[in-house]
Design a protein that fits this description.
Length: about 375
């Protein structure tokens, strides 16, 4: 049996709320609030509703003002606005401009209200299904695209691949809404680095010896990424995540709460990967993250410590012939060609595109261009251990 849909009803009249609880309480997972402020507090705490029904005329914060504030936290809830004849024109104008799904006159008979709520729930499910479908297709494309780029441009696309897997796992664990945005946000947040010369990429990757003019270029990547994303349909939500990745997480932020949380999840994954690339083991990485815990979404750090236990130093390294590399292994040292060119950095995940590129390289050279052996670990649930 499926769970009852969650509906939030807001009205400042107690008798109206009692009537709603009596008529709708058995049909829906119903929550009532006597003010916009009380309702926002529920939403800010992470409560998510499929439909919200709100009275237009309320003291302190009217229905239109509430819906504008709600949108900062949640874009998917379908709003229905109730109003009397006196304010109908103002409320109708608000709904006509996209502020609500439907406008109903008060008093509204329970049977009619239920009919409109059912329409709103149907609309909510349609949008959710569409977003889920778009998210699945987009993530499949992004992951395939990134796997190929990681083999061709190993530094940053190898990192984005590892960050993407970790962030996606944490997002699912926390049940963040629209966590499908995580994969494209991870990739596009690294995209600007592909425009740098290889030697500058390496300095930026290691965060060592970056010159002021190079840092100025890197600082401009946010605008570069935003311009790219705005030209792609259905990517505006991803842009919001990318914009917040470099910012400290604030619980009271006016940004969409789940967007800020998802951005912080990606930031944690990026910092984890950076510390790992510096040779830190898992306990040392957690120490580094916890020392800066004030800048992160703490639930995400807790989730990471649950999924990947703090005290576990990770799998043991083994020395393996490079011809015996298999999907899911993780390189524990840089893989160089015999010319001294970096082919794949420490931390790279062995995947089919990387193995395919290695096969092509060997086919193009008389002498094997790869070293005979390399340190690796077996894959993990994150494929980043």
């Amino acid at each position: 049996m499926s769970a009852q849909p969650k509906v939030l009803f807001i009205d400042d009249e107690e008798r109206v709320l009692k009537g709603i609880e009596l008529n709708l309480g058995r049909k829906y997972n119903l929550t009532v609030a006597s003010s916009g402020k009380d309702a926002l507090e529920l939403i800010a705490k992470g409560e998510a509703y499929s439909v919200v029904v709100v009275d237009y005329v309320m003291p302190e914060m009217n229905g239109a003002e509430f819906l504008k504030q709600m949108r900062l936290y949640n874009q998917s809830t379908v709003p229905i606005l109730l109003t009397g004849a006196t304010n109908f024109e103002y409320a109708a104008d608000f709904v006509a401009k996209g502020g609500g799904f439907r406008l109903l006159s008060k008093p509204c008979p329970p049977s009619e209200l239920i009919e409109h709520i059912e329409d709103a729930l149907f609309h909510f499910q349609q949008v959710e299904d569409e977003n889920h479908s778009i998210g699945n297709v987009m993530n499949a494309v992004v992951r395939s695209f990134t796997a190929v780029l990681a083999a061709a441009l190993p530094l940053y696309f190898g990192r984005s691949q590892r960050v993407m897997r970790m962030a996606s796992e944490i997002g699912r664990y926390l049940r963040l809404k629209s966590h499908w945005r995580s994969d494209p946000a991870c990739v596009f947040s690294h995209l600007g680095f592909a425009t740098l010369p290889p030697e500058v990429q390496l300095r930026a990757y290691q965060n060592e010896g970056v010159k002021p003019n190079e840092m100025q270029l890197i600082d401009g990547f946010e605008n570069f990424t935003r311009e790219l994303l705005y030209s792609i349909p259905n990517m505006s939500e991803v842009t919001k995540v990318v914009d917040l990745i470099g910012q400290d997480y604030e619980e009271s932020s006016q940004n969409d709460n789940d967007t800020a949380k998802l951005a912080s999840v990606i930031r944690i994954a990026k910092h984890y990967d950076f510390y790992a690339s510096k040779g830190q083991n898992r306990p040392q990485i957690f120490d580094s993250l916890i020392n800066n815990k004030s800048i992160y979404y703490m639930d995400a750090l807790d989730a990471l410590s649950t999924i990947r236990p703090y005290g576990n130093g990770g799998p043991q390294c083994i020395l393996l012939n490079t011809k015996e590399l298999k999907k899911g292994m993780r390189l524990q040292e840089d893989l160089f060609l015999d010319t001294g060119v970096l082919f794949a950095p420490k931390g790279s995940i062995v995947n089919p595109p990387l193995l395919h590129v290695m096969k092509n390289y060997r086919a193009c050279y008389i002498k094997d261009p790869f070293p005979q052996s390399i340190l690796v670990t077996q894959g993990s649930s994150f494929e980043t251990d």
